[in-house]
Amino acid sequence: MEEPNYKDVFKKDKILVEKFKLNDNYKLKYSGKKYFLKTYGCQMNEHDSENIKALLEDMGFESVDDYEKADLVLLNTCSVRENAHNKAFGMLGRFKHLKEEKKDLIVGLCGCMAQEEGVIKEIREKYKFVNFVFGTHNVYELPEIIDKAVMEGKQEIDVKSFGDRIIEDIPVRRENSFKAYVNIIYGCDKFCTYCIVPYTRGKEHSRRREDILKEIKALKEDGYKEVTLLGQNVNAYGHDLYNDYTFGNLLEDVAKEGIPRIRFTTSHPWNFTDKMIDVIAKYENIMPAIHLPLQSGSDKILKSMGRRYTKESYLKLFDEMKEKIPNCHISTDIIVGFPGETEEDFNETLDVVKHCKYDNAYTFIYSPRENTPAAKFKDQVDESVKEQRLQRLNKLVNKYFLENNKKLEGKVLEVLVEGKNEKHGYFGYSKEMKLVNFTGKEIEIGSLVNVEITKAKTWSLDGNAK
Ligand code: 5AD
Ligand code: SF4
Fold this sequence. Notes:
Shape: globular
Bound molecules: 5'-deoxyadenosine, iron/sulfur cluster
Number of strands: 21
Helix content: 25-40%
Strand content: 15-25%
Structural class: alpha/beta
Distance between the termini: 59 Å
Radius of gyration: 23 Å
Largest sheet: 6 strands, parallel
Number of helices: 12
């Protein structure tokens, strides 16, 4: 039994790569049992859940959408803001009630919250009905952990805190057959002062390029149309493994494999290289939709966040991307109410937004997180001021979403068809990462179609398939 440890997570000597193999003892051992899995947080968590599903199904569990019908319920949690944290604990409360009627219910928790020392303490002391916990570093141990919890009837908490191990070939049950996530680098070393991720996901450790390219080749052969390369900071890819092979090189090698659409997330503005810009500009199958988190437009706040860039250097990079990458669309993340943020600082953020006119923006109120430096900063901003700034910011970003979308009216965009909805017919995303609702006849889900845009809305476009 191991618990999360904020010190060990930063130890790293040499990366160990191991191949996963499911122990025969667990294969189909739980046939006939049902599981319910709920995922919070980012794409990294969504992709971990694709591994978790495959492992549970290899053990014989079958998925159900209604947690009341499940024999095993599992939450894959996120720690990034208090909101996500509270939602997970709220859900655990519901499971507690269910377990009062259904004594054999197996309850589990995994993901980023499992890596928090404080959460584990709380689970051990106040959530004794939780049967098992595993972390972000040991998803592959799920079969042993669940089986031990069931067989021994004790709370099984097993959370590793290492940043030096990569397990290849963990089975995966992808959400769909045309769009796939591929991890390229785990962890984050940037230590922005507000962010819990370096503590929950550990040190940066890259997958070997040959393993990534093997996975991409297999996805191409299986007919996948879109691949998203994942990392907390993809720009850092390779620095721990190679002397002269960086994210720009990997992106180029992936593009050459010929999958029609390649995306990546997330890129830190600090080490977004010229090589990356050149490669994105050169290959048509690298999508011109880039996520470039700003966080704040004030140099004082950026410094206190530990972001390693200034308003000026961010804008320089932004302008260069717009100039060199054809049809370039940029989205961002912004935090309001970081400790010490004055009205002047906030206006600097609005200033950058006015310059960049983002195509999409995820805006957040600063949320103090366990063990992060900023949580201890003295000059925390009043909740009402934070709320009011968020509203002002949202009003501004929304204005630009609509303005940008209006420019697409009358244009024909290529859309990857994701599904049907009752109101509009079909929906999917364009290369520019715009949500498009459109009409059409007998269109195959997972195909690429041209859609003429008839109407722009703030968060989506309407159109007709050509
Ligand atoms: N409070 C609010 N927002 C945060 N983010 C990360 N940590 C926090 C926090 N403590 C936001 C950042 C990041 C996005 C994934 O979540 O904007 O880019
Ligand atoms: Fe949430 Fe960050 Fe963990 Fe993703 S990596 S699940 S955003 S805390």
